[in-house]
Structures are given as C-alpha cells and as structure tokens.
Amino acid sequence: MNYTAQILFALGAIGTLNSLLVALYFLIHPRLSDKSNRLFGGFLLILSARVLKSIFYAFSTEEPVWFLQSGPAFFGLIGPFVFTYTLSIVKPNSFWVKYGKYHLLFWFLTLILIAIFIPFKTNIGFNKEVLLPILNFQWLGFILSSGLVLRFEIWKQGRSIQFNWLAFMLTTNLILWVSFTFIRFDYFISGSIIFSFLFYSIFLYFLLNGKVTNSVFKRNSGKEPSFTNQEKDQLIAKLEAYFENQKPYKNPNLKIADISEKLGISSHELSRFTNQVIGKSITGFINEYRVEEARQLLGKESNYTIEAIGEQSGFNSKSAFYKAFKSQTGTTPAKYKARL
After folding, report:
1. What stretches pass through the bilayer (predicted)?
2. Contact 249, 292 (CB under 8 A)
3. Of 53, 137, 166, 289, which is least surrounded by CB within 10 A?
4. Is 48 in contact with 59 (CB distance < 8 Å)?
5. pTM of the model
6. Of the candidates 311, 287, 291, 289, which has an alpha carbon nearest to the alpha carbon of residue 244?
7. CA torsion angle for 38, 68, 196, 150 (degrees, to 10)?
8. What are the CA-CA distances from residue 74 to residues 18, 80, 131, 242 (Å)?
9. Which fold has domain 3-216?
C-alpha cells in the first residue's frame, strides 16, 4: 500500500471504527435504553459495517477476504432501521414502532435466507449485479418513506429540534446512498471518506451542543416515570383552562411547542401526557376542540360556507376538516347541518 493509499485508508477507516464504538454505546448503555436510542444504535452499527466493507473492498490485497465473502445481504437492514428509528420519534405509538422488532426480524431472517441459499462466494455476479442494486433501492425507498412521514408530521406539529435532526439524518443517508449507488466499485473508498466526514461533523456538533444532544437522545434509567395523580389533575386543569379560555385551537398554525410553552413543560412531556393520561395524540386532542367549535358554528344561522366554518374552527384545509369531523361525529359537516 503506497503513501497515498495509506492516507485514504486512514481517512476512511478512522471515522468508521469510531462510529462502530458509538453504535455499541447506544446499544448497551443503560441510560440510553429508550427505544429510539437503541434503534439509532442498530442503524449506525449496520451502516458502519457497510462502510467498513467498502474499505476492505478498496484495500484488500488477498483473495478471498472473509468479510467480503459475506456478501451484500445485510445491507438490507439499513433502510428498515432508518424507517423504524424515524417513526420512533415522530409517531412513537404507531404500528411500525409497536411491532418494530417483528418488522426488523422479518428483514433479518429474509436476508439470512438469501445469504444461505444465494451465497456470495458461488454467486458473485448475481450478488453484485442483481441483489446489490435491489438492496440499494430498498434503502432509498425507506429513506423517502421516512422523509414523507417526517414532512407530514412537521406540517401537523411544526418544527422541533428532534424533527430537524431527523431531516438532517435522512439527508446524510441520501448523500451516502448516492455515493454508494453511483460510484464505481474501484472508487468505493470515497464513500467511506464522505461517511467519516459526516460522522465527525455530526459528532462534534452534538458534543458542543449539550442541550440539543439531550433533546435528541433522551437519557433515562429504564421506563419513563408515570405521572402522579396530582400532576395529572393539575395538567388537565391547566390544559382545559387554556383551551376553553384562550381558544388556541382556532389558530390553524398552532404547534405543540406553543401549547407546551404555555403549560411550562416540554413538547415531549406534553405528547407523553396526552397519550398516557388522556389516551389520544395531541393532534387528536386539538381536533376535538376544533370539531366542537365547528358544530357550534354549524348550529348558528350564518352566511358562512362550510369551508369557512372549518377555517374559523382552526382547520388549515378542507380535507383535514372533513376527515376530523367525520371521524368524531360519524357524518360530514354538510349532512350534520342539514339535520339541524
């Protein structure tokens, strides 16, 4: 290995090895036992393994190398981990998060079967020319799906530190996807160098911004504590008083951060409170007040159109108004008004 190759190897390997250590830290540290942290650790572990493999491929001088002979099958776990991690933050009570381990297990078993029945050693052409492109586009599909879910939740809840982090994380995934998909095998080392640069940039940012780090990667000692009866009563009283007196739900651009600031708690605590205590998401809680406001307006004699009543009630679109109204009343606004 010449001097230039040694420099390239060092640049690619140093970030990858450190990212493996960070991945293990997220997977085993007791104070990072939150599901989203464990999923992030799993994602970083698999992604680091892929980058490490590209380094082996670029600089290995002996054939066969055992790490290369494992084939690309396990690359198929990157996308599922990205998707499940994203949903664990934006929609923690969704089906994909509740049953995330089965989703990941499905892909794990599928990829194990591929590795067994289509081994890389005896099917090199198939693995490189067919399987690898399929897995690359599977990764892209999960990146785009995660981005769509995140975009929709930003539209509903507004931006937050966690959402900004996810947007950046998905963007870096897309950059890495492009580098590993369109760069020739002979230049795979460039993907690992890009990975090292991105890893250290993100690592230093979180290292220098403790507040952001604590918001994105929540530390705990296990299960989050439940609210006491006194806390429940106080928060419910404050929340209902705020909504009934100031009617913030009439603002179509109302964000969860606006409500949590008024109540003196974090957005995460408010979301956890409405889910655990009230039994519904914060969006569902807000829409209940909006639908009730719409019902009151529909019962009054006015020249307002139904669409205008939806806007007056705080809905930012006709479709959102109709969907929430029918979900809660079992009928459309027009049919409801006709029955009055």
Report:
1. 6-27, 39-59, 71-90, 102-120, 132-151, 163-183, 189-208
2. no
3. 137
4. no
5. 0.66
6. 289
7. -40
8. 20, 11, 11, 51
9. Rhopdopsin 7-helix transmembrane proteins (1.20.1070)
Look up the CATH number of domain 229-339. Answer: 1.10.10.60
297 in Cβ contact with 247 (< 8 Å): no
Neighbours of 185 (CB within 10 A): 10
Amino acid found at 195: F
**Band of pLDDT at residue 210, cut at 50, 70 and 90:** confident
Q: For residues 293 and 247, what is the distance between their CA atoms, to the nearest angstrom?
A: 10
Rounded to 10 deg, the angle between the 3-28 and 189-208 helix axes is 50
Residue type, 212: V
Residue linked to tokens 């799993």: 42
CA nearest neighbour of 35 among 170, 220, 256, 282: 220
Residue 141: how many CB atoms within 10 A of its CB? 12
Confidence of residue 136 (pLDDT cuts 50, 70, 90): very high
Given a cut of 60, whether residue 222 has pLDDT beyond it is no
pLDDT at 166: 94
The amino acid sitting at 194 is: I
Distance between CA atoms of 326 and 339, rounded to whole angstroms?
Answer: 15
CA atoms within 13 A on the CB side of 204: 7
> Is 157 in contact with 274 (CB distance < 8 Å)?
no
Query: 119 CB contacts (<8 Å, ≥6 apart)?
Result: 71
Single-letter residue type at 314: G
